[in-house]
Structure formats: structure tokens, C-alpha cells
């Protein structure tokens, strides 16, 4: 077997923003490896952190939303999720706000994990919460840019949605399976 060189970080020799917006910043870096190779431009996407909730009721059903996603031009099934806003005091407060806004629910929140959506070129992290003992306490906030339908579904029904390519967001699928493992709903 060939001996592998020690891994080392790249250095950034220059950096400039090619796009700055409230939702995303795109940075073009010039990088140099320890062996002297130049990589330029190397695009880095700066997003705010994200939160996602796997909401499980007493029947072991999962709360699933449906909404239009313009990137794929599809109506898809997903978990409740959102962006951490600058006004949020913490990732947990952002998760609670998003759950209340999108579906009007509260519950008991447990952090399942903090993950990088794409460490190759994104700077943000995604926080996944398990929400148990969900209770609807209000009607969802009406947002004309984010029309959401929601309902609790069995794990079997969600697996069928995945197979039919109606539940396609891979970060949501990984969060779902992490929650199913943690709750022992599905023995993985």
C-alpha cells in the first residue's frame, strides 16, 4: 500500500466577495496547498446556520411538510426547517421560532447533532433537533413566500415518499434516520 502524505490545510493568499446578500455570500478565494499548488478561484458559500426539526408524536409518527422548492421546481415533502436569524438568541431559539411559525407547534427539544451541509465549500452548520411531545398552540404564521402544508405520517409512509422521490432533501433524510435511530422507532 502506498504511504499517504500527512494532510495539511491550505493557505488563503487572497479573497474577494463576488456576491453579498442577506441569504448568501459567495467568496472567491485564491488558495495554495503546502506543496505549492495554486487553486484559484475556489468558491466558498457563506450561508447562515440552519435548523431542522424531527417532530415525533405519541404514535411515533413524524411531522412532514410539503412546499414548493424553486431550485428543483418541485413540491416536496420535508421536515420543518429554517435559517438562524441574526435576532435569534441561540440555535435552539431559532428552532423553536421556526417550528412555531411554520406549523404552530411547541414541544420538548433535544439536540441530535451539529453537521456541516458541505464542508468542501460551505461555511455554515446545520443543527438537528428531535422534538417530542408536540403540541399545537397557535396557527402558523402566514408567509406568502413559504406556503406550507403539514401532517404527521408513519415511518412507512415517509419511506414510500423517499422511494417515490417526493422526499428528496438529503439533509432532511439523514436527520430523519438519525432521529429514528435515537428514538428506536426504526432499529438501525
Question: What characterizes the major β-sheet?
Answer: 4 strands, mixed
CATH topology of the largest domain: Nucleoside Triphosphate Pyrophosphohydrolase
Q: What is the global morphology?
A: globular
Quote the average pLDDT.
93
Model regions low in confidence, pLDDT < 50 over at least 5 residues: none
Going across the biggest sheet, name each strand in turn: 7-4-9-8
Q: Label the CATH architecture of the largest domain.
A: Alpha-Beta Complex
Oligomerization status of the protein chains: single chain
State Rg: 19 Å
What does this structure look like?
With 188 residues, this protein is α+β, with helices and mostly antiparallel strands. The chain has 2 domains: 11-46; 50-183, Nucleoside Triphosphate Pyrophosphohydrolase (Alpha-Beta Complex). It has 3 helices and 10 strands; from the N terminus they run E-E-E-E-E-E-E-H-E-E-E-H-H. The protein has helices spanning 91-103, 155-163, 170-183; strands at residues 11-20, 25-32, 38-46, 50-56, 62-69, 74-78, 80-83, 105-115, 126-136, 149-153. The strands form 3 sheets. Strands 7-4-9-8 form a 4-stranded mixed β-sheet, sandwiched between helices. Strands 1-2-3 form a 3-stranded antiparallel β-sheet, with no helix packed on it. A hairpin with a 4-residue loop joins strand 1 (11-20) and strand 2. The longest helix is centred in the last third of the chain and has 14 residues, at 170-183. The radius of gyration is 19 Å and the shape is globular. It starts with 10 loop residues before the first strand and ends in a 5-residue tail after the last helix. 21% of the residues are buried.
